[in-house]
């Protein structure tokens, strides 16, 4: 009997499992933990005047969460600073937006240390710990310093940058060295894993052990590719729900027999939103016969609005959408419906189903679950067409989509035309192949494959087998937490 402890920066398990937005990580982790009686630990999203180190435990729609409040300085330096102004742009190849402030790095180290100090007393010898994303890279190191010898895995939900970009980060070697306190590091794609390996071998003089592992800094870590997916059954249920059906009917009626193109993205410069609007504008210029026959619904919830670069892109998108509408709109037609709001998952499913084309065109992305949601939402007898950026992690799996270079407005324009004119038989064939990928990479498969690899069970990923004998966690004399939650049986379900 073991428990699974999931750690992420923000704990955002929705109170309603059907609720959700474009944020893929929250929905994926909620779906994963709802299958197990585990604990999801991290920041509550709230601030307090002074750090207390207290963990608040709540139940959210079947997910037990452990919440910690941060000081305003922590939020400014750790979250708004190092995470979102340093690591996020760097990992998405935007060195021009990357800010290297010493206080940011100090805050990042401090908050990770604090998280470790709060969590450590609650960890029992047989617990398995799964830490997520760029916010928490040093946390395994901090847990080890506190005597934690449990199996600890890490999954990166963003791309990993090229070595030439990573070395622009002050103390980059220290950051990578801290990752060797994990037992397993997972990536969405082979490309990201290979880039990590390149840094370790070239910059840090590490070695590849020939079994998917790396030796460096006097330690060993296993690496693997674990492409994340969606909760297929849950999403299908949301699509077929009353609200999902009603949303589809509403969108179909509002289209007035026009073809709808849809994009759903959190407001972020990595999503290629400006380039997308420019590509759509090019399509309208190239195809005057399509004016009045098609429209783009762009759903873009606001995020990180207190970060300057996000305020800038919001202003530019507002202006760009207004300019395109002003140039092409008619009295009964607007080419773009631009919405800065969040919708529930069942509403999004209805929107996707009503669309003829799905535009998923980030400039750089770890996976992008919108691509998989769009496919899952389609009518098998008359499916829409997915246009997908070559630089989204999903492109490695979803080759039957229309793959595009999002920087080229001409290429995007041509892809939109091809999607709108694609014969039914070809649409059905492409959709069937893509839906097969979506089912094979369900979030439960992602969850189970990672946990299996972490505890040492054999896992095969595209012919690469991760074999590692499970090391028994050593008992440590740590104070026991008063927090209680049900045990997790790792041998359940697909295990």
Structure description:
The chain is α/β, with parallel strands linked by helices and 495 residues long. The protein folds into two domains: 4-229 and 442-466, Rossmann fold (3-Layer(aba) Sandwich); 232-440, 3-Layer(aba) Sandwich (Rossmann fold), CATH 3.40.50.2000. The protein is built from 16 helices and 18 strands. The strands form three sheets. Strands 3-4-2-1-5-6-7-10-9-8 form a ten-stranded mixed beta sheet, with helices on both faces. A six-stranded parallel beta sheet has the order 13-12-11-14-15-16, with helices on both faces. A two-stranded antiparallel sheet has the order 17-18. It is globular, with a radius of gyration of 23 Å. The two termini are 13 Å apart. 50% of the residues are buried. The model is unreliable at 458-495 (pLDDT under 50).
Keywords:
single chain; 495 residues; alpha/beta; Rossmann fold; 2 domains; ten-stranded mixed beta sheet; six-stranded parallel beta sheet; 18% strand; globular; disordered C terminus
* Top-tier CATH class of the largest domain: Alpha Beta
Number of strands: 18
Mean pLDDT: 88
Q: Remind me, CATH topology of the largest domain?
A: Rossmann fold
